[in-house]
Amino acid sequence: MPQKTENHAQIKEELEKIVGQDWVSDFPEELHNYSYDMTESPPGEPEFVIMPNTVEEVQAIVEKANEYEIPLVPFVAGANVGGLTIPLKGGIIVDLKRMDRIIRVDVDDMYIILEPGVTFGHIRKLLDEKFPQFVYCYPMAPPFTSVTANALQDGLNSLSLAHGCMSEFINGIEAVLPTGKVVKIGTCACWDEHWWGRYPMPDLLGLFTGWQGMTGIVTKIALQLWPKKPFRGMLFFLSNELTPSYEMVRKITHYEILDDLLFMSLETIKMIYGVPYQKAVHLEGEPRWTGFIDFSANSKAEYKAKLELIEAAFKDLRKDDSKASLSTLEAASKALGPQIGDIARLPINLKGMLEYGGLSWLGSYFTTKTETVVKGIHIAFEIIKKHGFETCLYTRMMRGGHFYALRFLLRFSKENEGEIERMRNLTKELFEALFEFGAFPYKTPKWAQDIILQKADKNWIELLHSIKKSLDPNNIMNPGRWGMD
Length: 485
Prior knowledge:
The protein is of the alpha+beta class. The protein has 3 domains: about 10-100, Uridine Diphospho-n-acetylenolpyruvylglucosamine Reductase, domain 2, CATH 3.30.43.10; about 100-225, Uridine Diphospho-n-acetylenolpyruvylglucosamine Reductase, domain 3; about 230-440, FAD-linked oxidases, C-terminal domain (Vanillyl-alcohol Oxidase, Chain A, domain 3, 3-Layer(aba) Sandwich).
């Protein structure tokens, strides 16, 4: 049970006046549902859960939290990793699911304004049905994942190769500050009808991206859309040798012709296919690596030229890996099963990864240097094998090849005795090993933050704390993270 504040009954009554009795709860069963996520992160129960429906209600909640100095933790869809929405200090979970309005699509300047409860499933359906001339970016995540949360936490997506992590797609936001004031960042600060960009004015968006809800609650966000080109190619490859395969990935990336390139261990494909837990392992004689190449074109000639460059890079790969193969996604789906084709239809149902109750991952942004990446993968695999889990690697080149997303997917059973603790030991050892190579975790869990703070520049830490204290003098917003106890 969470520790109750002295004024528990009074606070509940005042919260109910803000949103109505149906949208505030302190029932133990409901609080428990917000106390954990799919990872091995330690649980922590809130004292209340509240579900606002308007920015004015969010403001009133924040003002009430300041009055009683009770913590607030923003929450949306529950598809959380790293314990980012698990309360470290109790308090109030502010569940934003009801704020699920898509406010406007600007066709001329190619952006969409939406509330935090809008999911990738919502935005995919809207664009497919009403704005088929546009595409958005999608992570390899379930359709119910929050678009806003993913963007604010620097997530990766199906256009990350071309444009970087999802925070790069943000044109502007509306946010409730920890004091209860509402602020707009971007051109929307001057004109409510114009949310087309953040420049060339002083860019304050960094006060909200990567902060894990410590600086306020975002209530609206404008995100860039992209033209859907008439010709699209999806290719599937298999290979055996890591270094030549990775060099091929780098080469194609530097051509600047792709929308996306996924590079994975074969075990990851097996997990997506639903191979049972602890059975998604590499077998003798199987290819070791696999990937998906996604590109689009405005004409048949452009499509053909891009395809020829990709095929030429694979021809070079085969000099070092004679069994490497390249095919269309359609051909791969016929040979290997229709699940392969799901990669082209993101967001994706990750049933094979989620059905055992636990899914963790160490996701980091990393150098693209071949020697460092290859060595890091080999060390990581040895650590994962030592702890008895499946070696599932899922990666992307980011922003034209300027950095690399290196992610290890780790499913586990929360029902098996000792397995949660075993996963904690694995992720900690994995993080410490890769951090020494320069890998920085995104959606950073608290335990990793504590390690980073021991090594980070002291002036950076001082600035971090100064900004937090200035914006949140009562330290009510998701306290306990990045040393803000």
